[in-house]
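BACKBONE GEOMETRY TOKENS:
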Amino acid sequence: MIGPGKYDELCTQVREQAKAPAAMIIVIEGDKGSGFSCQLAEGYGIDLSYILRLVADQIERDLKKKKGS
């Protein structure tokens, strides 16, 4: 979805506090239900699917390390 979502205000707070050109939040069972919000500064080209794959790969590596501990 392009345009504000139910957690857009929260994402704005995160992005502004981090002084970042982009931010993404994922909320599970929040007060407005589950959902996500993503914001990118205008002209800031980024492939979100690529970023999400990087995050998923890192989570898998961390979980494998934890199991091996």
Notes: The first strand starts at residue 22 and ends at 30. Helices lie at 8-18, 48-68.
